Amino acid sequence: MNNPLLNAIVRMGRVALFLLRVLGQCLPALRNPRLLVAQIYNAGARSLIIVMLCGLFVGMVLGLQGYDLLQRFGSESALGVAAALGLVRELGPVITALLFAGRAGTALTSEIGLMRATDQLTAMEMMAVDPVRRVVAPRFLGGIIAMPLLTAIFNVIGIFGAQLIGVGLIGVESGSFWSQMQSQVEHSDINEGLIKSLCFGVACSLMAVYEGFHAEPTAEGVGLATTRTVVSSAVLTLLLDYILTAAFLNS
Amino acid sequence: MGDSAPAEAVVDVRELRYAIDGRAIFDGLNLRALRGQITAVMGPSGTGKTTLLRLLMGAVRPDGGRLTVFGEEVALLSRQPLYALRRRIGMLFQNGALMSDLSVFENVAFPLRAHTRLPEPLLRRLVLMKLQAVGLRGAADMAPGALSGGMARRVALARAIAMDPELLIYDEPFVGLDPISLGVILRLIETLNATLGITSIVVTHDVEEISRIAHQSYLLAGGRAVAAGSPAELRATAAPVVNQFMKGLPDGPVPFHVPAPDYRTQLLERDP
User: Fold this and answer.
1) What angle do CA B88, B91, B92 make, to 5 degrees?
2) Which of A17, A124, A162, B18 allows an S-S link to A59, with CB 3.0 to 4.6 Å?
3) What does the pLDDT profile of chain A (251 residues) look like in tens digits?
4) CB-CB neighbors (< 8 A) of A127 in chain B
5) Residue B175 and residue A207: Cα distance in Å, rounded?
6) What is the Cα–Cα distance from A30 to B168, expressed in whole angstroms?
7) Residue A19 half-sphere exposure toward CB, CA atoms < 13 A
8) Among A108, A118, A127, which would you mutate to test the B interface (most chain B Cβ atoms within 10 Å of its Cβ)?
């Protein structure tokens, strides 16, 4: 088992099997909405500040860079469209997913890992309660629901940031900024971003709960699992992003 | 259930064999826990005491032999009947294993909420009664993180008896406790066993403490029970391994030194 390629394939298989096990418990988990709401709060509301803050900065940078690029072609009035499309289709879902992995994903992994290390998961099994149903499934679902919501907030704040710089500071005409955005951004663009963020939500939540559930039950093991969550979530997000982008551009 | 036979074995282990990575943990283990009694399972560290509990609860499966709990062979049970069996068993974990995101009250209520549909007022009274039994009714609203080790273990005990189990299993209940907490746990094990009429299995290496309350003791070594009997009988046994364990001698059949090359040769050999 020293072949890294083989190890990677084995790991993918394990994650896939775990996904099936979690999916099997998702419907029963939905019957306990109190747990689910708590997890949406944990994954979503607690990531809100960092997502809003980063959305603002990304939007402001987009305003600067977008203006610099567009004015070379004399089309700085298209700044609104450029910023909106860039955010909705690409930057919003991807950066939100990366932030989510860093904020909520690590929290999930260390929480579940600590439950493992302190025998809480074993204790549940001994009390005839399936920890995948009670602990993993609500957190997994909570992450998936929270991700598109966070992405939407990121996008809105980002567009506001771009407007702040483009219209407020540089002086692009406010009317063309908004009207071009309104006429050019299609439903399909919004859908693309939504589907992307849902896929990233599944990927990041899955990696977080998988790593936590299978963490070695020691302090060191939980720390390592947390690191692995961020690395795998980030790689998986960017890989999925490429695949989804290619698929959307083809269709 | 047959409560007519007084000496009925709730747990019956026969010729149990189990290995981890080719290393035999149990090799022909025989052990019985009789209804209504406190059975102590003792042994030096690393003799697989905790593994035995995992086997009892059906978390792992034996390689050979029979292991029955309430007359059912644990290894043959599928998930549903296994979970049904586990509901009849309460288990106290070494560190309590309380849910860190729930209050003391909710921790005790956890198995009740998971397995019953009791109306809230009834559930509340039931939980308070269980907490009263361990003397922690006043700590109902505390968070597990704010409890001392002994208190956490008492809460875990209240949780273990929440579903009124017929069998209570304790994993190292005395480890890391101050003398007062230790005395409290010891008395709780005894009174719960007597008043609830349940069967108790205590896995421990604290010979002195458990000898005061156990009806029957087993000493594990080398994958089998090397001695069985009342604590007094064990103490009187002449077998060297039993003698070493019961008296806490540093060297004996369980050697002080980990196997190593010859001391003198190793000290005198040239540096490579």
Assistant:
1) 155
2) A162
3) 578 899 889 999 999 999 999 999 999 888 889 889 999 999 999 999 999 999 999 999 999 999 999 999 988 889 999 999 999 999 999 999 999 999 999 999 999 999 999 889 989 988 888 899 999 999 999 999 999 999 999 999 999 999 999 999 998 889 989 999 999 999 999 999 999 999 999 999 999 999 999 999 999 999 999 999 999 999 999 999 999 999 999 87
4) 86-87, 91, 110-111, 114, 159, 163
5) 36
6) 33
7) 12
8) A127
Instruction: With CB atoms and an 8 Å threshold, state whether A115 touches B100.
Output: yes
Q: What is the ipTM of this complex?
A: 0.79
- Contact call for B89 and A126, based on CB within 8 A: yes
Q: Distance of alpha carbon A142 from its chain centroid, rounded?
A: 12
B51 inside 8 A of chain A by CB: no
Place of tokens 């960092």: A50
Q: Mark which residues 96-125 of B lie under 8 Å from A by CB.
A: 97-100, 110-111, 114-115
Q: What is the DSSP letter of B160?
A: H
**H/E run at residue B73:** strand B72-73
d(CA A201, CA A194): 10
